[in-house]
Input
Amino acid sequence: MKARILSVRELSAADEQKWQNLSERAVEPNPLFEPCCVIPAARHLPYGDEIKLVVAEDGDQFHACFPIRDIPSWRNVPYPMVTSTVRRLNYLVTPLVDATVGVEAMRALLVAMRQRRRIGRSRVLAFDYLGADGPVEGFVRSAAAALGLRVRVWESFERGVLRRRPDADYVRTFGGKLRHDLDRRRRRFAEEFGEEMAVIDRACEPDAIDDYITLEGAGYKADAGMALTSFPGEPEYFREMCQRFATTGRLVLPTIIGDGRPLAMSVWLRGAEGLFMLAVSYDEHYARFSPGKELHALAMNLFHNQIDAAWIDTCTFENNSLLLRLYPDRRRIATLLIPLSRNPVDLAF
Output
């Protein structure tokens, strides 16, 4: 099995199709590493020409891949690294891997990365937010061990997940105080707007994506410099990515409508049997109704009654207390560092 490192901006149609085919049979789904997500990022973000794809292939098939980008520092560590986080706020970097040749394919990828290191590239590979409760982490560790490469766990934590249950009464898992507060705010909403608070899926509405971008850009995320509109190219990247997933029926946009406008919206991407929560925002003018919390709670009914997925991954960072309260199940996430040489400084990581 051989490996190549490709420029995502210059990817051929044939290679894009091989990439898509791999994503559909990958042992662990990760829509954030699919062409629908990474290609728009490479096309629109200012550093898009730096985004590469390392692939392991045999014949006319890709058997494993993940995107990479060289960075001069990582998490405030001033040291040249190569990271699999090629866009902002990407909280899942599990490589796409064909289970039938998992270790062999991952070994080919690491060999390519090590050879790239020898010609002066970044010296440590960072897998930020790798799924640590599935087979891919085992493939990474086994392949690294076969090559004599060290794997260091930089951090490990659990985040909230919702797994399908026989009935839709997911709020039973909430604490009593939280349930009471949500009920009270829904009553206030009904009194003010004359209708019950409810969630609809707006994925088929052509203006819904722009509504999300506008909603996020008018709130606290913009004030903190974290909104899509705060970064050049991000609205364009986000719009194209969502349109690509919508075209294949794998976009879900849970939305609370009130006073003739969206009060809260979330963006879910479908990957195999799972849903991946990419973004959430709400209108702070209606904070008295806690539309953000209500969206999470009510969208669980949408998940149960209208979608055949088995689980929702919140795709969030460590110690997100709200989502840990709302989403009762857990998955383990780890950040792995792999020095690509035996240089003592590299091995210090």
Summary: The chain is about 35% helix and 25% strand. The first strand starts at residue 2 and ends at 7. Residues 176-193 form the longest helix (18 residues). Residues 8 and 52 are 5 Å apart (CA to CA).
